[in-house]
Amino acid sequence: MTHGNYIYYLSTPPSLYEIVITNLGAYKLQDTPDEHGSKKIVIEKPFGYDLETARKLNTHLHEIFKENQIFRIDHYLGKESVQNVLALRFANGIFEPMWNRNFIDHVEITSAEYIGRRRSRRIL
Description:
Elements: E1 6-10, H1 17-26, E2 39-44, H2 51-64, E3 70-73, H3 75-83, H4 85-91, E4 110-115, E5 118-123
Parallel strand pairs: 1-2, 2-3
Antiparallel strand pairs: 4-5
Helix pairs in contact: 1-2
């Protein structure tokens, strides 16, 4: 059970951020039904392509999510988090209380990146 706690982690191409955010809002997936749960969204950089697109994305985010629900992180910080799940669990106050056998059924991490001309995919 998640007890109403959800984290939407957008490790997607930046061109999909607005689409994902819009659809989360369309289905009210950002709302918490009561005071016992929380819903957060994590967005990896790049956060827009320039100042104008960053402001546009930020405005769109605030149409759906409250500021205290939004986390913006650098792609490389996200990469480090994926590579070191244990450190993420125990060193991060957001994840630690709920990342245990009582709340997590399984964790699947898929890394799909273009390296040169080949696509590399591995499940960790």
